[in-house]
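Instructor's aside before we start: the two examples that follow are unrelated to each other. I chose them only because their records fit on one page, so don't look for a connection. First example below.
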Amino acid sequence: MAKEKTTLPPTGAGLMRFFDEDTSAVKISPKGVIALTLILVAAEFLLHAFGPSIFG
């Protein structure tokens, strides 16, 4: 008796899987994220320290 080829039902209900993602987004390396965070923290510090004297 020959075995019938069975197909599994589709899973995920139309949700995207991780390898189905659109790759046109901007990608930032982890080092870039850390550098950007440090730059923003430094800018915040400078604005708190010198902002009142500069902006009145």
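Example two begins here.
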Amino acid sequence: MSLVIVQPKPASFAAGVVAAFGAFFGLFFGTSQGSGILGIIAGAVVCGALAWAAVTFLREKETVGRWLFILIFAISGLVTSGLSGMVFGGLLGWLFGVITFFVASGRYRTAMPPYSTPGQVLWYYAFRTIAGAILVFLITPILVVMPLSFNAEDFFTFTPEMLKFDPAGYSLKHYRDFFTNSDWQQALWNSLRIAPMATILSVGFGTLAAIGLSQPHVPFRRAIMAILISPMIVPLIISAAGMYFFYSRIGLQGTYLGVVLAHAALGIPFVIITVTATLVGFDNSLTRAAANMGANPITTFFRVQMPLILPGVISGGLFAFITSFDEVVVVLFVGSAGQKTLPWQMFIGLREQISPTILAVATILVCISIALLATLELLRRRSERLRGMSPS
């Protein structure tokens, strides 16, 4: 085991690193105030100066230095944006305090081998910082929608009462509107009628296709696979237009069956990919052993093969369900007013009547998606245990 000697760094080094982070955050604050360049300069100067002062005078009192960062940023947020700004500023101050003393103490070297070059250390942390920034960029729009769904006013922005954390600024009125409005309930009922049936068809056809394509004697396997997963690759608007012209010729356009078949076609590629991935670790000698014991192909499939590939089948079914439940482009082309789904109603709420109820619906859908993703993760771990890829 290698021993890494932690050497404290000069205040100027820590100040430079913290100034870079300050410039990054200053870009967003400056842009919101109308000047991104000014925000970069102010963020770098202020954060760099605070870091230099904290390391110079409080190097041996790290806890005091961190609390000083929190206090300064919280007061600044309170002066500029009220109570919400104080909370956000306190969190930001905690982050900068951690970064300052983490760099100044040299502890960042403990995660790297002792022979690592400065360039390797820089890339190690730069990569993680970039990945974290991308995650924040992707998650922030979702996090903004959720508190807005509790807005007491019919606005799509934070009201002064919400920013002050005044209870009068929050309400469940948009959730009540969703559960009591006939248009929203009809849209929800349509989605619940369409998505499960589309999922059943996707799972059935997709599982059979994946098992068939896993056999080495099937000719043109790659070409068939490419055709079956093409709905994932082809732009959705093209698929929707093609389905519209095809279904209108055979009398399925504007019908419940047409929408179900269209959504099933979109979900089948997800089932094929997940089941195929599960079949990669499947031991075919188990099916041959079952056949030698006298089991017919159907019995072998349900008693031997299906229990082992079930996590992949369920995962593909969840993906197919999410695809059908959240899809809006294809149903606009293939469906009619009688098949108006929840995403379609949300689209109308933005385009025609500007209904804030869509914020409550979006929050509910996010919670459902989180639950489904957690289920997928549990199934993935179970699949690895069944295939012997994970010890526990």
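The longest helix spans residues 62-104.
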